[in-house]
Write a structure and sequence with these properties.
InterPro entries: DNA2/NAM7-like, P-loop_NTPase. This is DNA2/NAM7 helicase-like C-terminal domain-containing protein. By secondary structure, the protein is mostly helical. It has 4 helices and no strands.
Length: 81
């Protein structure tokens, strides 16, 4: 839990949580609260339902370019809240 607190409190620009939404919600932990809050704020994206998101993440993985998700100046964040 301490590691989760460090990650959550140190995010400056963006925080991506990759995981199985149903499992995280059923965990009855801080993850449940985060997922429910993200859904309420319309910041929760399901790659199984969002085909463009699934294609983008697959392409980044294939190109070994996942570091783009860590760049706050990336075009991916141009319209971020």
């Amino acid at each position: 839990m301490q590691q989760a607190n460090v990650v959550l409190t140190r995010a400056r620009y963006c925080l991506w949580i990759l995981g199985h939404g149903s499992t995280l919600i059923n965990s009855n932990s801080i993850w449940k609260k985060l997922i429910l809050d993200a859904k309420k704020l319309e910041c929760f994206f399901n790659a199984d339902e969002d085909k463009k998101l699934a294609q983008a993440t697959e392409a980044l993985l294939e190109l070994d370019q996942l570091h783009i998700l860590l760049d706050p100046d990336s075009l991916l964040f141009k319209n971020a809240k």
